[in-house]
Design brief:
By secondary structure, the protein is of the alpha+beta class. The chain is built from ten helices and ten strands.
Length: 291
């Protein structure tokens, strides 16, 4: 067993375990309370969980529009009958509610979020424990799949987590979108609703955008996942006073760039403009969206 009280060792130990192709469990505790766990099998990440995640895999699938609340309730009853001997995802796949490709994609996104949260803890105690669990090889991920910004030679700075605070360079880059006709404000948003960066000419407009996002992000994400097998790149939500244009900005589809237009704005023109510059935005926002 390896133990450390240095929170920066989380990234280092994870890279070391993957590089050495070890089968192990990395456990993180804060004030004697276990807060996060990563399970690895021969250097690949089988799963990860963090107590500060706002939702488990089942609720995540519901929010993404992949299963209904009724589906989840039915599967949970079956899961409880097995008393933990079968995984929730396995049961969803076996019943045909979720296909294997969709399940793998959602599991990757859910695992990525758990590890990002894990990297944000301060004053944590780290332990490496023996892994005796059996995992489905097709449902495991390389380190690069989970966290593309990780280098096998140089782990990232723990302070670069998007959950640690604002990103001034993101705000400045979003300001370049202000040339879109009818532009009022813009933001980079996680699919859980967290605003990572924003830009507008007034605090009142920023507050309005935050209010609108609180009620529209989940709806937009559901619609974008449901349309064209999840391949829809952008969507707009219109109203009498203006509209929101929403576009995926991360290739992993967990971050969105959102533009608020006033009543003079044209959503079609804004969608076209975002589509034309999205690769440039993705590159410029790499530190925020982990590309």
């Amino acid at each position: 067993m390896r133990s450390s009280a240095d929170p920066c060792d989380v990234a280092t130990l994870l890279v070391d375990c993957c590089r050495a192709k070890r089968s192990t469990v990395i456990s993180l505790s804060v004030q004697d309370r276990r807060v996060a766990t990563i399970v690895l099998h021969f250097g690949r990440i089988a799963w990860a969980v963090c107590v500060d995640q706002p939702e488990d895999l089942g609720r995540f699938l519901c929010r993404m529009g992949r299963i209904t609340q009724e589906d989840l309730a039915t599967i949970r009853r079956t899961y409880e009958q097995y008393e933990g001997r079968r995984k929730l995802g396995t049961l969803l796949e076996e019943t045909g509610i979720v296909s294997r490709p969709v399940l793998r994609r959602c599991l990757l996104l859910h695992t990525r979020k758990a590890i990002a949260r894990m990297l944000s803890y301060d004053n944590a105690h780290l332990e490496e424990l023996e892994n005796t669990l059996v995992s489905d090889d097709d449902m495991m991920f390389s380190l690069e799949e989970i966290m593309p910004e990780f280098s096998m030679n140089q782990p990232p700075d723990a302070n670069s987590s998007p959950y640690g605070g604002g990103w001034p360079e993101g705000n400045e880059l979003l300001g370049e979108l202000s040339s879109i006709p009818g532009y009022a404000a813009s933001a980079v948003v996680h699919t859980d609703g967290e605003i990572l960066a924003s830009h507008s000419d007034s605090s009142e407009v920023n507050a309005l955008l935050a209010t609108l996002l609180a009620s529209t992000v989940e709806v937009a994400v559901r619609a974008m996942w449901a349309a064209n097998a999840g391949e829809l790149e952008s969507i707009y939500i219109g109203g009498q006073q203006g509209s929101l244009v929403i576009h995926w900005v991360s290739s992993a589809r967990i971050h969105l760039v959102v533009v608020l237009l006033d009543s003079t704005g044209k959503p079609g023109m804004a969608r076209h403009r975002l589509g034309a510059v999205i690769m440039e935005l993705r590159k410029g926002l790499a530190r925020i969206i982990h590309e």
